[in-house]
Amino acid sequence: MGHNSATYLHHLIEAKKLAFSDLTRFVGEPESMTADPERLLSDEFIAQRRVLLDPLSASEHPRPGELVTESETIYLTAADAQGNMVSFINSIYWEFGSGIVVPGTGFALQNRGAGFTMEEGHPNEVAPGKRPFHTIIPAFVTRSEPDGTQQPWMSFGVMGGSMQPQGHVQVLLNILEFGMGVQEAIDAPRFRHFSGRDVAFEHSIPRHVLDELQAMGHDVRGGEGTSFGGAQAIIRLGPGWVAGSDPRKDGAAAGY
To answer: Which of the residues are catalytic?
Structure first.
């Protein structure tokens, strides 16, 4: 399809809509879910969902409820000489989390309970002792070795609320499908889908591509005032490492 062509971006946006529709409807604390996660990730289920993707036209596909999380998040990743890798993300939700500071510590407690829904029977319905749905996704990629074992290959994250899974897919495809280096993959322009046909694009995506997407039915807008996430990544290269940091956020890649 070509990197960031209209066809490529259209397929990613439409796939995101289908995935988020299922996420909003089915995902909550594991003990409260009525849908089997293995079923949601199965080839059979995904094939059923895939046939709903129109390759020529944008779907309205409204989400079943309001987005349940926003973002006040940091992400970091680290690796050492022994080959250990850590993917870490932390968020207190809103600028000061719950607004409660633990006496004598100086840190605020998180406010992720805001992610619950009041919808009766929903797997993410608020209840005592439950954990809320959230968008905190420290990502990790392993690689199959000749002996059949899985070895750490890339530790990465793209923080930014509902941009996280969208950003993960875009960065990962940049590396795996288009052969980009880690920093190049992070720097490449992104889209962010919100709801319905509303999609924001970073300014360096060519105008003719945006015009083609508009013709497919997408409500195209510029990226002013939109967060396209902040990525950090480390890839293992035999005896050493390569890392990248997103210029969209404050951060750095460093080694010694």
So the answer is: 73
